[in-house]
Hints:
The chain is built from four helices and seven strands. It has helices at about 10-25, 35-55, 100-120, 130-140, and strands at about 1-5, 60-65, 70-80, 85-95, 125-130, 145-150, 160-165.
Amino acid sequence: MTTYRLSKPTEAQTIADLHIQSWSNAYRGILSDQFIDQELAGMMSQKWQARFENPAENQRIIIAEQDRVPAGFVCLFYHDHPQYGTLIDNLHVIPAFKGLGIGAQLMREAAKLVQSETGDEHYYLWVLEKNLPSRQFYEHIGGQNVEGETKEMPDGQEHLVFRYVWRS
Length: 168
């Protein structure tokens, strides 16, 4: 059984671990192996520790658990962009739990939370051009690719990323 809930203040490392597992799988061959193997874990642990110690007022994190095992999460920043609304900063489901509908349900849970707390009906996220499985998933659940730009990734490489938008 899959459950969805808001994260607890003590779950920074849980979120970091989910993020590490997801990136290690999705970005192998896109980001450098050296970065994934040697720097990713430390970077994510620091990032999530900081976000949990000093959370932004507009930050919300929803965790998905499959039979009480953390399976994925979504991190939101309300009212991040005047045109596109709430930023879906991260949406990750670890490989062992992909294909169970958890990612789509995390998006529905996020939409319900955003609408109930802010009334906002616009959401967006950035995704790497080369991350084809994620792009296909976002398109399958109604996301529209509205623009692309080149951004520097944590490993120092530049990649084209696309902004996907949901308008309701």
